[in-house]
Amino acid sequence: MEISRLKKDKEFQIVYNSGNKEFGYYSLIFYKKMKNKNEVSKIGYVASKKTGNAVCRNRLRRLLKEFFRLNTLKLKTGYNIVCVAKKKAGENITVLKYQDIEKDMNKVLKKANLIESKIK
Q1: Which of 14, 28, 12 is nearest to 86 (CA)?
Q2: Could you tell me if 29 and 82 are in contact, meaning their C-beta atoms sit under 8 angstroms apart?
Q3: pTM (two decimals)
Q4: DSSP code, position 115
Q5: Exposed (0-12), middle (13-18) or buried (19+): which is 5, by Cβ within 10 Å?
Q6: What's the pLDDT tens digit per position in 48-73?
Q7: Which one, of 110, 58, 105, 81, lies nearest residue 1 by Cα?
Q8: Which ranges of 9-97 does DSSP label H, i.e. alpha helix?
């Protein structure tokens, strides 16, 4: 499965305004099924200034990107996903590990029904 990035503000706004959302402890996701010709999923990563300073925000985005990089085969295809780091993640950045993000994201994606039950 191929995953590309959401880059344009218009793409983000479509997902925010007409998509669904699910909450986790450290993050929340907005997602929308898209009618792509080749079933490519697109993912955008967001960490606002409320989460912390630039170092904190970049670390959170890197952790989220790493999760999706390692779990591309589990995700259903054809969705646009915006993954937003919450303020709680920024407050705990000194003790936050990849395993914490992984556990939280798996829970959120299962609630949103974006993880395939069987890997092809």
Answers
A1: 28
A2: yes
A3: 0.90
A4: B
A5: exposed
A6: 999 999 999 999 999 999 999 999 88
A7: 81
A8: 9-18, 54-70, 87-91
